[in-house]
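Hello Y.,

Per our agreement to keep a running log of every chain we model this quarter, I'm adding this entry. I've kept the format consistent with earlier entries: sequence first, then predicted structure.
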Amino acid sequence: MAQPPRTVEVRLVDLSGMALDWAVAEVLGFQPTLEHPLFCSSPAWFGLCNPPHWLEPDSPFCPSKRWAHGGELVEHYIRWLRDPANPGELWNESGALYLAVGVNGKPAFGATKLQAVCRAVVANARGDLVSVPSSTLGMSAVA
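Predicted structure for the entry above:
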């Protein structure tokens, strides 16, 4: 039996890419794993032991980059999603921030709508500090 992956705690506002997608998969009960056969040939992806019925076989789960995956989250887990209205409102040094509020009322921001949605899903289930495998940090989500 393989060792479980080494995990690290990450602030929600710092979650992005593969680490954010992993956290969403955990919240949704998809049981992400680094031991999936395709992980070896495609290191920017993790497998799902319990994939959703709508995910194409052997397709990476990328809700932070793909509307086909993230759109499902908006419908079921987001109370509202807002575009930044004007400079000075919901902006940071990187530019505009989108705001998503989950069904439990916890808000989250993101550089894209999907990133805000994914962060809100995680925030509403796990809070502002999340454990993810250290190998997922700094890896871009598959587009």
